[in-house]
Amino acid sequence: MITTTALTKRYGDFTAVDQISFTAEPGQVLGFLGPNGAGKSTTMKMLTGFLAPTSGRATVCGFDVEEQPLQAKKALGYLPEGAPSYGEMTPRGFLDFIAALRGLSGAYRKQRLDDVIGRLQLEGVLDQSIDTLSKGFKRRVGLAQAILHDPKVLILDEPTDGLDPNQKHQVRELINAMAKDKVIVISTHILEEVHAVCNRAIVIAGGKLLADATPAELEARSRYHRAVSLTAENPEQAKTALADIADIASIEIDPQDRRLTAFPKPGKAILAAVSEALSSRQIAVSELQLEAGRLDEVFRSITLAQQVEGRA
Ligand SMILES: Nc1ncnc2c1ncn2[C@@H]1O[C@H](COP(=O)(O)OP(=O)(O)OP(=O)(O)O)[C@@H](O)[C@H]1O
């Protein structure tokens, strides 16, 4: 389990992280979402003991990160932003070095090394210097060192950054496979990643925690939540056919792709009425979809509102 209590980092007059408090339990994959410079990495660095907070505190598995740093660090694995720094080492040498630092020995050490090398598919590059690896392999070596001691808490700063779509998929599967009994915190800009791996999302902007919810709860804040969108041969004609449905608040036709979206009045369900109105007027529709909500739109509205407030 991890907790932060009013965790704050100031650089002179500038507040990079502003009183962030949350608790995360095993089984949670918590996504830190936020625009560039939001304070995600700084929060992670304070959680992992790499940066001292100006005020507030963080605990990992009950250990205060500042007062009991060794116990806290033992319980966590950390993938920092970017790549591992020991570029002249090979992945084999680097992982051996980390295994020694983590105090792994004997059969367990071999089992853990084999496990992470296999999971991250590093077999083919074990003896090549890290400097000469592709960005994706560097990232995978970084991930391997983070999970080598099978920690209870994993803090992963943009774990899929620099990976190609197949590798992204593999790393997301790896995170899902490890999620059951660990607390995993990942930072990301990629909203589809939140869908793919997170069961909870914290939105940070301007150093402040602005939302803490499940991805579905965030989507429910979208104006697209429970909207019905469709592609029709003649969208204007479809719009006219839907005009009399009392529970529709508004209808928009996208000027780019000509897709029609009908937005329900608060709390209303309109899918059945839309289908009925279209079929009774025999309007051809190639595709019709009930929307869950759009995370990108919710993300924009939360973080832009903070920017406006921050400037005021
Ligand atoms: N050592 C420092 N001195 C002054 N300002 C800093 C320092 N380190 C970070 N900052 C500032 O703190 C803010 C938060 O940075 P941070 O790296 O935590 O953001 P982030 O959310 O991780 O961004 P990104 O998504 O771009 O990685 C930024 O405005 C950054 O410029």
From TrEMBL:
The keyword DNA-binding does not apply. Keywords: ATP-binding, Nucleotide-binding, Transport. SUPFAM superfamilies: P-loop containing nucleoside triphosphate hydrolases. One of its GO terms (molecular function) is ATP binding. It comes from the Bacteria. Pfam families: ABC_tran (PF00005). Residues 2-231 form the ABC transporter domain. PANTHER family: ABC TRANSPORTER, ATP-BINDING PROTEIN. Belongs to the ABC transporter superfamily. This is ABC transporter ATP-binding protein. It comes from Methylomonas aurea. The lineage of its organism: Bacteria, Pseudomonadati, Pseudomonadota, Gammaproteobacteria, Methylococcales.
